Amino acid sequence: MHVIAFNGGPRKEGNTSTIVQAVLEGAASAGAETTEVNLHHINMKGCQGCLSCREKHGVCAQKDDLSPDLEAIKTSDAIVYGGPICMYRITGQMKLLVDRMYSLAAPKKEGRGYDSQVPEGKKFAVVVSQGAPDPEQYGRSIRYLSGNDRHAVSGFFTGQTRVHTDNVTLTV
Ligand SMILES: Cc1cc2nc3c(=O)[nH]c(=O)nc-3n(C[C@H](O)[C@H](O)[C@H](O)COP(=O)(O)O)c2cc1C
Fold first, then answer.
1. pTM of the model
2. N or C: which end of the chain has fewer CB within 10 A?
3. Residue of 20, 89, 130 to test ligand 1 pocket, by largest number of atoms within 8 Å of CB
C-alpha cells in the first residue's frame, strides 16, 4: 500500500507537518509505503489554462516537480491532504495543487459534469490546523476539500474514507 500526503503548509516543522507526519507514521506502522510532498518546498506552478487535459484526459501538460506526484494520485492507495487554514480558507500552495487536479477530471461525454480519471477505491483523508477556536473556519475548508460541497476535491475519489483530526492540541 502506498500513501501519498500533500502538505500545503509552509513550515517544515509546523503544526500541519506534525499532524501529517503522525498520520503517515500510523500508515507506515501498518505496513504502508509513505510519501510526503511539501508543496511549499518544490518547484511547481499552477494550472496554466492550456486545456490540453480536455483532449488528453488525466494528464497535465505542465511539467515540473509536481508532475510525478499528480501521477501518484492515480496509482497510490490513499491520499492525505494537510494544510493550515489561511485567511479563512486553504493556503495558496494547496490551491495550486487543487487547480492542477483539474487535469484529473474529464468532461462527461454526454450531459454536464466530469468523470474522474482517478481509479476507484482510494482512501482519502484531510487534516487541517488553524489558530482560531471557531470550528466553522476549518469546517468550510474541509467541506471544500473533502465533501458535502458541490465543488469538493473529493469528487475525484470514489470509495473514500474521511478522517478529520479534531481536538489535537498543538503549539503555534
Ligand atoms: C497568513 C496566515 C493566515 C492565517 N489565517 C488563519 C485563519 O483565517 N483562521 C485561523 O483559524 N487561523 C489562521 N492562521 C493560523 C494558522 O492556521 C495556524 O497557526 C496553523 O496552525 C499554522 O500551521 P503551520 O504550523 O503548519 O504553518 C493563519 C496563519 C497565517 C500565517
1. 0.89
2. C
3. 130
